[in-house]
Write a structure and sequence with these properties.
Elements: H1 2-18, E1 30-37, E2 39-40, E3 44-46, E4 53-54, H2 56-66, E5 70-77, H3 79-85, E6 93-97, E7 107-109, E8 115-123, H4 133-137, E9 141-145, H5 152-155, E10 161-165, H6 168-176, E11 182-186, H7 187-196, E12 204-219, H8 225-241, H9 244-256
Parallel strand pairs: 1-5, 1-6, 9-10, 9-11
Antiparallel strand pairs: 2-3, 3-4, 6-12, 7-12, 8-11, 8-12
Length: about 260
Amino acid sequence: MADCLLKRGWYYVMLILMVNCVEATPSKIEYITIAAENDWAPFSSIDKKTGEIKGLTPALVKAAFLAENIRVEFKQMPFSRCMRMAMTDVVVGCFNATETASNKQSYYWHKTPLFQDRMVVYSLYQEQTLLPIMAELRGKKVGITLGYIYPDEFLYDKRIFHYKARSDYQLINMLIRGRVDYIVMNERPALVKINEKKVDDIIHNVGNLSYDEFKIAFSRRHQKGLEMAERFERGLLIIKQNGVYNQILQQFMNESL
């Protein structure tokens, strides 16, 4: 445990030193508040021991804003509430969001994604799904998580019968109990929850629905929403160029395996 804490402490010291930011004085440091999804490991979830938000996304967000001399405070909450908060002036933005045609005008978006992850279709059967997978889902009962973002062409296809669950865990239970034919989840969070429930031997990946880019959805009502979207984009490009991004990505992806 001591070695782990020492390594983690060294990592964050090196992170601060490596980020290419303007020399700061206390009067120049800015502070903002961002709403953080709290139940989506390995990308962002609550550390049960410390109560703090942890995962790939908060680490990347802190580093990118640090490159712009901005310190971030996180408000932890479920994703659906997070996105609603980002439509007010209470927080600057919300993660982990995907930009779609239906929400494009509701928020300010930065161009460069934080990370990407596949949206996968899961079944109780090891079947060979024919392409295009969207056609295979038509006429079937497909489970989704309430408040999450899905591709418009999937979500608004009336030929697909969407069944909504309150959480990813409930979604997995719906599939196990035969209430739906398929469920749709992003791959890495799905693997975490499927492994936690020890049902990896009965739930099978039968095809990819989409390949999603995840971002911060910045508030159009917050007075700094647009400015922070632009500065976050700049900071994200800085840490991609100086190697900090790849270090963070490697650390958290290895931890989630």
